[in-house]
Design brief:
The chain is 53% helix and 11% strand. By secondary structure, the protein is mainly α. It folds into two domains: 1-38; 53-98, no CATH class. A three-stranded antiparallel β-sheet has the order 1-2-3, with no helix packed on it. The radius of gyration is 25 Å and the shape is elongated. The chain crosses the membrane at residues 16-33. Keywords: Membrane, Transmembrane, Transmembrane helix.
């Protein structure tokens, strides 16, 4: 009887530590994902890059699918090619291939 009680206690402890460990790993993964997603422009600005590269615009075009795009006259967002097109001035921004 006493041995069974000890076994149940050991199993309960193992289950508790497993659940807490899993919760910690999930929280850390969520924190890492959110940090990278919401601060990616900051990281892009502070990593080494070629002189003259506009890292803000590169990140904008790269993440245009995640960004809220309001209805603005003469502006079209093309998610398929990652273009931002100004129909009034016939100019557009596109993803850098270089």
């Amino acid at each position: 009887m006493e041995i069974e009680k000890e076994r149940e206690d050991d199993n309960a402890k193992k289950k508790y530590f497993r659940d807490v460990g899993l919760l910690i790993v999930l929280c850390m993964s969520l924190y890492t994902y959110c940090n990278l997603k919401f601060n990616s422009v900051y990281y892009a600005q502070h990593i080494p890059h070629k002189e003259g590269t506009e890292t803000d615009l590169v990140m904008l075009v790269k993440n245009v699918g995640w960004i809220y795009t309001p209805k603005i006259d003469n502006i079209i967002y093309d998610d398929g090619t990652n273009d931002i097109i100004n129909t009034k001035s016939k100019s557009f921004l596109t993803k850098s291939v270089v």
